[in-house]
Prior knowledge:
By secondary structure, this protein is α/β, with parallel strands linked by helices. It has five helices and 17 strands. The chain binds flavin-adenine dinucleotide and FE2/S2 (inorganic) cluster.
Amino acid sequence: MIETLGIVLENKPLSKRLYLMVVDAPDIGEKVKAGQFVMLKVSEGLDPMGRRAFAVADVRDSSLLIFYELVGRGTFLLSRLKGGEGISLFGPLGKGLFNLEGNKHLLLGGGVGLAGLTLLGKKLRDEGKKVLFVYGGRTEEHLGMEGWLWEEGFEYILYTEDGSKGRKGLITEALKEFDNSWKVHACGPKGMLRALKSMKTGHDMYFSLESRMACGWGVCLGCVVKTTEGYKRVCYEGPVFRAEEVFF
Ligand SMILES: Cc1cc2nc3c(=O)[nH]c(=O)nc-3n(C[C@H](O)[C@H](O)[C@H](O)COP(=O)(O)OP(=O)(O)OC[C@H]3O[C@@H](n4cnc5c(N)ncnc54)[C@H](O)[C@@H]3O)c2cc1C
Ligand code: FES
């Protein structure tokens, strides 16, 4: 991992809540693997303290694509950055990565959690594997990354809780339609991951977890999650874990 100064090429809203930032950061773009993330310094001062974690959703040429939702002060400041400005990045981070074995892969992304799976989808497709994305959100407004799926030519199913786009319901429903020959990878709100785990469908399933992170590289212990082998750091041993292994 390295600390580098990236140049913002683009930073634009895709919907009221979701932004896409394209950052030229070749040092990280060349190294990043599916499942890894970066810590961004969202301001020069101490407001807010610390960096913020974001999945590298895609790499095009030497540029990183980062999809982010407006949550608090940090992401608000991020959304103010303009093309041509610099941003400090730290990464790529995370050692626990996805299991690429098997020929059929179901990728379940809840809201902006989809950003944790998109690079995986590309990697699997490059390896000639079958990839199907399932992307869900509360309303159509929460499906701001559909354009990426479309542009990249992936097969996908959409779900919204209110039925404003795609199928009406929760994406957890989709799991019932696929037998255990499919490997499942999921990223999204904790409630969604808990529901998937509780379905006990017997799928070989992997979760990319989020946690509040201060350092991002294993030092502060702020991000730990309970596992069958004791506490593990989401930023270091994760962010990807076998579903059976984690309790949250
Ligand atoms: C490995 C990893 C990858 C991530 N990838 C993405 C991504 O690709 N796109 C994206 O939009 N977000 C992603 N996140 C979440 C992102 O880091 C937070 O949304 C961001 O740090 C919020 O910063 P803020 O200053 O705007 O909000 P803050 O002011 O820090 O927080 C505002 C509110 O959000 C809650 N919150 C903040 N961060 C988290 C978190 N990580 N988990 C749960 N609750 C949180 C806080 O408790 C608080 O209530 C990722 C997080 C991790 C750990
Ligand atoms: S964020 Fe510091 S140990 Fe994980």
